[in-house]
Protein 1
Amino acid sequence: MTKYYYSCELDKNLIEKSFNNVALLIFGKNNSRRIEAFEDYFEKRVSQVNVYPQGTVTEYLNNTTPGRCRPDKDGNIIIEMLGYKGARNDQLSWIKHEGTHEFCHSFVDLLHEVLSNKSARITNDGFLYENSITKNGILHKNCSGKIIEIDSKTGELVGLYGKMFNETMMDIISSMAINCFDSNGRVTSVDDIIRLNFNDWGNETTGYSIFTSITRLTIAAFSNNGFINYQNAVDKGLSIFDGTTTMANGDTYKINDFLYGIVFDQLHIEEEFDKFMGSGSYKIFCGYLDSLFTISLSEQKLPSSEVKRVMNILPDFLNKKINYYRQNGILDLKGADKIVGNFNQIWNSMQQEYGSYFTEQDINEIARRAGII
Ligand SMILES: [Zn+2]
C-alpha cells in the first residue's frame, strides 16, 4: 500500500488530480476498469508519495528540482514533490504541471511491467520476451521510460538511453492531460500540442520546453494515420497511446508507434526505428539526443547545426518507412501524403525556431537519400 504524506488539503488534491490527469489521458476516460487495475498495481509498487511545502530542500528536492520519481531500497518507487503549501499565487499552475509530470513518470516507469506478456517471440535480432531483447549478447530492457543495456554474461551495465524523449514526453503528456481534464476552459487541443510550438500551448513552460519540437517531429514521423483527430479520440474516452488503426492492407497498427512506445514499451520504438534505419540506429540517435539534452539544458539554447542533424535523420526514417508502406500496400497515396504533410509542417517551422535553415541543395540531398530524385 502506498503511504501518502502531505501537509494541507490542497496538496492531498494535488496528488489525486495528478494521478487522475495522467490516468484519464493514458487509458481514456471510458476505460475505468483499466484505470482501477492500474491503481491496484500503483499501490503495490509505489511505496510513498511525499508532498513537501515550497522551499523545502531535501537530498533530492530543491527549487531547481521541484519533483522527483526515484526507486527506494527495495526497487519500489518514491514520488516526491513540492506542493501548494507556502506557494505564491504565481506558482500555482506550475505546481500543477510539475505534479502531473512526476505522476506521469511513475506511470511510464510501471506500465511496461503491467503489460509484460511473459511469452517469448523470435525476431530477426533474437528473442524478445518480457519486454527485453538480446542482441549480440547484450540484453536490452525497458527501464523507467528509457532503455537499459546489460551484458548478459557479466551483468555489467553497458548503456542507458532515451532520457531526452522521456523527459520531454512527460511535459507533453502533462500539458495534454491538464488541458483536457484539469483546466477551466480549454484553450488548446491535443492536436494543437502535437502540431504547434510550446509557446502556443497555453501551458507552463519548463527547462525541457526548448526540446519539445524535436520530440513533436519524432511523433509525426512515427504516425501510422495522419487523419486521426486526437482530441476527438480523447473526448470519446479512448486512449490515444495504445489505440489502433486499420491500414490499407487490412492490418492493425498502433495509431502512432512513438506515442505507444514512450508510454507502454520503449523497445517498440527501437524496433520500429531500427527496422528502417539499421540495427543499433536508435541507440545512436538517442545517445546523440541525450548528450545534446545534457549540454543544452543549462544554456537553454540548442545549436542550430545540431538541430539540423536531427532534421536530416528523421526525414530519412520517415521516407524509408513510407516507401516500405507504399510498396507493401500498407498505406495508400492519400494516407502517405497526409503523414508526410503533417511531418513537413513541423519540420518547416523548426527552421525558424532553431535557426536551422536548409538550402535547396540540402533538401535535394534528403530527397536523393530517399530515392525520390
Ligand atoms: Zn521529469
Note: The chain has three domains: 3-115, 121-161, 181-369.
Protein 2
Amino acid sequence: MNSKKVEPEKLRREVYQALENIVGPEWISEDRAIVEGYSRGTYIAGEILPKHMKDKTVLPACIVLPGTTEEVQAIVRVCNRREVPVVPYTNGQLGSLATIPGTLCMHFVRMDRIDIDEENMTATLQPYVSYNQLQADAMKKGLWNGGCPLATGITKLASQYSVAGIWQTDLKYATLNRNILSVKMVLSNGDMLVTGSAGQAGSEDFWEYSPGPDIMGFTRSSLGTTGIVVEITVKLHPWVGGPSFPEDIGRPSIDTYYEDVEEKKFDRPQVPERHRICWLEFPDFQSELEALYKISHSGIGIGLNASGCYNDYYCSQTREMTNNRAEDGFFPPWNCYVMLAGISSEKQLEYEEKVLRQIAEETRAKFLSEEYKPDVLDALAPWNQDCFRHVTGMRMCRGGWASLIIPMGRISIAKKHREIWCKALAQIGETHITDRGGCDSTPFVYVVNRGHFQYSETDNYPQTHSEPEGLMKSMAFLNYFTAASVKEKYTPGAIVGMSVEPYHSFFPEIGPNSNLLFRKIRKVFDPKGIFSPGKVVYTEEELEAVPDMVRDSMIEFRKMVGFES
Ligand SMILES: Cc1cc2nc3c(=O)[nH]c(=O)nc-3n(C[C@H](O)[C@H](O)[C@H](O)COP(=O)(O)OP(=O)(O)OC[C@H]3O[C@@H](n4cnc5c(N)ncnc54)[C@H](O)[C@@H]3O)c2cc1C
C-alpha cells in the first residue's frame, strides 16, 4: 500500500483573505475534508487514478462558492493578479479537476436562477441550472429546450457548453451547441464577454452570431479554459408532452428500494402525451446504417439512435441480469429506436409511423411489437425517455464506467468506429464483457441534424473503481483508440480524446499541428495561463514538464499503431 502522506498546497494568506473578503467566510473553505470532495472525477479513469496514486496535483487549495457574476469577476481578478490557477466546477463529472497544486476551485452551486421568455422562446440560465430544472420550468409553459444528455439531473447547460452536449433528440434539435443564443463569460482578466447579437450595444438576444468572427466558436468545448460561463441563453421549442410526467410512479424510491429491486418493477415511466417510441431490429450492421440514412433523410422523428449493448445495463434491474443478457445476446445487436412527436397533431404521429414502417420494409427491419419479441419490447420499457425527464435521471446497472470514446462523422463512419474498437479489444482485452458492445453489436449511434452527421460511442466498464488495474486498462483503450484514429485519419473525437492533453501535443498529426494554433488562442484569452492550465493545450513550458510516465505511454501507443516515433 502507498503510505505517502499527501498535503494540499495552501494559498498565500493575503490571497485567501482577499477572496474571503469577496464572498464572505461562509462561502470559502480550505478544510481538508471539503477539498478532498473536489479531487476525484466521476468516471474517467485518468481522473480517478490520481487518487490511487496519491497525486496531490488534483487536491485544490480551496473551494470558493460565488453568489453573483460580480463576485466571479472579483475572484478572477484576484487570481489573475496573483497568478493563482482557477478551475470551474459544477458537479465534477468530467474535466473539472485541478491540474496543478495551489488551484482555486470555483463551485457554482449558489448560482441557479432561470428566466424564461415565453414570447421569444428563450431561457437564460445561471451556471448551476441543470437540464431537469430547465425542463420542469419550461414544460409547464408548453416549451422545452429540445433535449438532454443521459445524466439529466446532474448535468448543467453551462458546463456542457464547455464539454459536449449530445442529446438523444439530436436528430431534430442537433445538440446543445446549435441551441445557444448567447453566452456571458468572465475572461481571465475579469472582463465580461457577451457573444452573439446580445453582445452588440443596444441589440437584443436573438441570434448566436453578430458581425465579425464567431466568438462562440472560439470558446465552446474549451473545458473552461477560455472563460467562465456566468449566464447562458438557450432556444426553446414547442412542447406537446404535457406539463409533468408521472415519473415517480414505479421509480426506485428510497423507502421501497429493496422491494422494488426484488419485484423488478421500477424504471417504467410512461411515454409523454403525443409522443411515440418505436424499436427496430436489423439483420446486420449494414442494413442498420442504411435505415439510419433513410429515416433521417425522410424528415420524420425527433430522435434516432442505435443503442446495442447499452440496453443491457439501461434496462436490467441487477448487475447479474446485465451480465446474463450481455452473455446471451438478449437484446438485438443491430437496432435503432425512433422517437416520434406529434407536434402539430395526433395525426402527425400516425403519418410518421407509416413512413417508418415503409423504411423498415425496405431495409429488412422488424418492429418490436406485441407479436414480435414482446418480451424484449417489454424489457426495453425503462429506457429512452431520459431526454424528457425532469424529476430524476434513470438508473443503470453496470460496472464502474471508466472511459469513453465519442468520434464524429458521417453516419457510415460508424463502421470505422466499430473496426477500431474491435482492434482495441484484440490488442488490450476487455475490462468486462460489456466492453464488447460496439464490436459484437452496434456502437451507440446518435444521429444528428437530420443525418448530416453522427456521434458514436463505445465505453469501458471495469466492475469497480477501487482497483487500479481495470482503470489502467480503460486508459489503455482510450490511448489506443486515440492513437489508431489519428493514424487512420479518422474523424475528430468529442469530449475526451483528441482535443485535450496529452493527446493534443503528443499527436501533432491532429489538424495537423492544431496544438500550435490552440496554444496561440489560449495565450490570447488567458495570457497568464490561470484557467485550468494544461487541460486543452500545453504551453511549451508545460510540455517540457510532462511526467516521464505520461510521455513514455504516449510514445508507446504511437509505436503500437505504426507511427515511427
Ligand atoms: C451517466 C452519465 C451519462 C452522460 N451522458 C451524456 C450524454 O448523453 N451527452 C453528453 O453530452 N454528455 C453526457 N455525459 C457527460 C456529462 O453530461 C458532461 O460531462 C457534463 O458537462 C458534466 O456536468 P457537470 O455539471 O458535472 O460538469 P463538470 O464536470 O463540473 O464540468 C465539466 C467541464 O466544464 C467546466 N465548467 C464547469 N462549469 C463551468 C462554467 N460555469 N464555465 C466554464 N466552464 C465550466 C469544468 O471545468 C469542466 O472542464 C454523461 C455523464 C454521465 C455521468
Note: The CA atoms of residues 77 and 189 lie 6 Å apart.
Protein 3
Amino acid sequence: MPTVDAGDVATSIYEPRHACPSMVDRIDTCDVLVVGAGASGLWSAAELAPDHDVLVVDAGEVGAGASGDAAGFVTAFSDWAPSPDAVAHSIAAFRALDGRHGFTFYERPYVELARTAAEGAALRETYDPLFERPGYDVEYLDAAELSARWPGRFDLDGVDGGLVKHESGIVAAEAYLHALASTARECGVRLRTNTTVESVVVEDGSVVGAETPDGRVDADVVVCTAGAGTGPLVEWVDLPVRRFVYSNLRVEADAPLDDAYPMVYADDVWWRPEPGRPRTFLVSGGTYFLAPDDGPPRDPPAAYRREVRTVLEGLAADVETATAVPGSYQPCTTGCVTTPDGLPVLDAPAAAPDGLVVATAVTGGISVSPFTGAAVRSLVTGADPPVPLAPFAADRFDEPPADFRVDGIREPLSGANPDSE
Ligand SMILES: Cc1cc2nc3c(=O)[nH]c(=O)nc-3n(C[C@H](O)[C@H](O)[C@H](O)COP(=O)(O)OP(=O)(O)OC[C@H]3O[C@@H](n4cnc5c(N)ncnc54)[C@H](O)[C@@H]3O)c2cc1C
C-alpha cells in the first residue's frame, strides 16, 4: 500500500463529497491514479509501476497539453543549474530511452550566447554547479573559438562568447510521448484517454479516488500532473501560478544543415536544426503571460516575429532573410503555468489530504521530465529523490501577488492579440 507523508493533517476539515459511496458508479480501481498523460504524468506512472497498480487518465489524448506542443530542446535550462543531479538523472534517462519504441535522442550541444563579457561571466556563475559536477561536460568559448568550432555557421559580431552544454539533445515531442506511453504500458500502466477528472474525492482526510463524467475511479493516491489544469483539482493547495504561452515557428535555412549544427539561444530566441528536415530551423520563444480569460494567440505575435527575424538574420549565417514556413506557428494549445521562481511544485502538501501529490508548473518540463517522475515516486513511496525536494514545496512563497513577474516572460498580449500582424 503506498503511503504519502502529507504532514499533520486535521482530518475533520475534509468532508466526504459523497454520502453513500456504495451507491457510486465505479469505472476503475487502482493504487495510484495519475491525472494527465503529459511527459510528467507518464514518467511518474512508469516510475511507480513496478510496485503499484497505476492508471493514467487524460482529458484528451496522450500529449494533449504542453508536452505535445514542445519544441524538443533538452538541456539544463538556467532554473535547473542549481540541481545538477536532477539534470544528470534526466539526461541519463533520455540516453536509456534512445532507440526504444521508435524514439531517438539526438545528442546535440546547446550553446547559450552572451553579448558582453559581463553576460558571459554571469552565465558562468549561473552554471557553476554544472562546471563543478563530475561527468557533466560544459565549457565557455569566446567568439573566435565558437567560429572555429562551427565554421561558417554564425555571424558573431557583437557576441562575447557562448556557454556550451554538451549534455544536451533534441527530441521530437510526438515520438517521445509515444515512447513514454509504450514504456509505461510495458511496465503495466493502464491508460484511459478522453476522460476528464472533475474532482478528487476525499473521505476522512484521505484521498479515495477521483470523479469523472463516466463514474468514479477508486485510488489510494492521486497524482495531479495536469499541467495548466492542475489548479482546479487541488483546491486545498494555494498554487502560486500564472498561465503563459511559448511559441514555435519553423524558419527556412538558406543551406542544408548538417548533424554538427548545435541548438542555440540568444536574446530570448531558441533555434535548432530539425533532424530529418535539413533545410529548416525550429525556432522557439515568444513567451507571454496570458490574461485570465484569454487563450493562446491565434497568430504569431508581431513582437515575436520581429525578434526571430532580428536574431536569426543577425546571428545565423544560414539565414539571409528569416522566412517562416506557412502554417508552422505552434503556440501552447492549453497554456503552460509557472511559479514566481520558475521552479515547479513537486509536493505532497501538508495542507492537502493524505494521498494527494502535486507535480505542476514544470517549465522546460520535457528536459526534466524523467526527474519529475522520480520526484513523484519519492513523494508517493518515501524513497530518496535524486535531489532534495524542499525547493519545490508548494508553500515556499509568501503570498506572491497574482500578477507576479518572471524573467523572460512578457506581460500579456491584451484582448484578441492586437500585437499580431
Ligand atoms: C510551444 C512550446 C514549446 C516548448 N518547448 C520546450 C522545449 O523545447 N524543451 C522543454 O524542456 N520544454 C518545452 N516546453 C515546456 C514543456 O512542454 C512543459 O514544461 C511540459 O510539457 C509540461 O509537461 P506536463 O506533463 O507537466 O504538463 P502537460 O504536458 O500540460 O500535461 C498535462 C496533461 O493533463 C491533462 N489534463 C489537464 N486537466 C485534466 C483533467 N482535469 N483531467 C484529466 N486530464 C487533464 C491535459 O490534457 C494534458 O495532457 C514547451 C512548451 C510549449 C507549449
Note: The longest strand covers residues 277-289.
Protein 4
Amino acid sequence: MSRLSPMLTLWLLAGCFGSEVLSATFTFSNNCGYTVWPGLLSGAGTAPLSTTGFALQKGESRPVPVPSAWSGRIWGRTLCSTDSATGKFTCATADCGSGKLECSGAGAIPPATLAEFTLNGAGGQDFYDVSLVDGYNLPMMVVPSGGTGKNCSATGCSVDLNGACPTELKVLSMDGKQGVACKSACEAFGDARYCCSGAYGSPDTCKPSQYSQMFKNACPRAYSYAYDDKTSTFTCGSSPDYAITFCPSPGTRRHPQRPMRRRRAHKRTAEWCTRDCLTAEEPCGAM
Ligand SMILES: *[C@@H]1O[C@H](CO)[C@@H](O)[C@H](O)[C@H]1NC(C)=O
C-alpha cells in the first residue's frame, strides 16, 4: 500500500475545499403577513438541492445550502392547503402540481414571480434575475452578499401588483373579491407578439408591449418580457450568498385573501407604484 502521491493529495484537498468554498447559501425569509411555500427547481444536469419545497411561516427564515454550479428557479407559492379528503396539497398561486409540499422536479404553474440562477457560469460568474415573464404572484427580492462586480446588486420586485393588475390579466381569489396573481400578456392572450414566439422570436422583432411596460414601470429591475436582458440580468463574482425575501417592504404584507378597507383599497389600486423599493427601510411611496 503506497501513500497518496503529493499531487493527488493536493488535488483531493483542492476538490474538497473548492466545493466547500464555492457552494452558496440561499437564505429564505418571509416578511409577508401570510405563509409562503417556496418551490425550488434544479435545471437539467445540475445537482439537486436538499429540498424542492417547504413551508415558510410569516417572519420565518431558513437557510438552504446550494451546490456550486447550481442553476435553477425559485418561487413562492401562496394560499396553499391540504385537501382533507384526498390528502392532496395544492396552492392557489404558483402551484407546482406535485400534490405535495415538495415539488420534486416540477416547476411553477404561471403566473409566478420567478428568481432564476446560474451559479458559476461563464467566467466563473453567477448570473441571476427576477422574472415577471411568466407573470407575478408576490413581491420577491434577491440580494447577494459577499460578491464582487459592478452589477452584483439587489434585484426583484418589491411591489404588490395584485391589486393594480389590469382586469384582463388579473387572477382572482376563490371568492372573486381579491387579486391573488397577475398573468403575463402572453399567458392571457397567447399572442406571438407578447410571447416573443414565431415571427417575433428575436430581440429585434419582439418589443415591449403596453403590458410588459406596466410591469417594467413598477419593477424596473425585473424581467418584463423575454428580451429584457440588458436591465434585468445581474452578475456577481466571488460566489456570494443570496438572501431571497418574500414581501421585502412594508405595505405588501397583508394577506392576499383578506380584503382591505374600501377607501384604502381604492387608493392603492388607483395607480401602479412607480418606484421599486430595494430595502425594508425604504417603503414604496404609493404602496
Ligand atoms: C450586468 O452586467 C452584464 C455583463 O456585463 C450585462 O450584460 C448586464 O446588462 C448588466 N446588467 C445590468 C442590470 O446593468
Note: The pocket of 2-acetamido-2-deoxy-beta-D-glucopyranose is lined by residues 151, 230-231, 233-235 (CB under 6 Å).
